[in-house]
Amino acid sequence: MPLSEHEQRMLDEIESALYAEDPKFASSVTKQRVGRPTARRRLIASLGFLIGLAMLVGGLMIDFDIGGLKILSFIGFLVMFGAAAFGLLAPKHHGAPDAGGRSEGRGGSKPHNGGRSSFSERMESRFQRRFDQDDH
């Protein structure tokens, strides 16, 4: 559900106040976003999760434990957890925004999504336009 004009103005005011109050923090927050995982990364995470699940269930079926701990099941759980973390915590594939508000990724300064700019790029360009209008 999109924001109303009033909510969008409030959000823009909060953002501009954050940039004015602590620009170092604001730039560090915008740079540390987690990106969407690629298809290959999702496939690897899915396979790892399934292998971990098979180990977990197989460890319960096999009567092998050390000190009352089902080792194979525990390792399977760790594999599942690692695969889920690997799939969810994908690094951002775009570079950090430069001073002009553009993101430099693999293809230069053009956006990767068919000519449309990302949400953060649009927000930064709006902020820059407002900042430029306030100076004049």
UniProtKB/TrEMBL annotation:
InterPro entries linked: DUF3040
Keyword list, A-Z: Membrane, Transmembrane, Transmembrane helix
The keyword Transferase is annotated on this UniProt entry: no
Region (Disordered): 95-136
Extent of Basic and acidic residues compositional bias: 119-136
A Pfam family recorded for this sequence: DUF3040
Top-level lineage group: Bacteria
Transmembrane spans: 43-62, 68-90
Protein's UniProt name: DUF3040 domain-containing protein
Organism annotation: Gordonia liuliyuniae
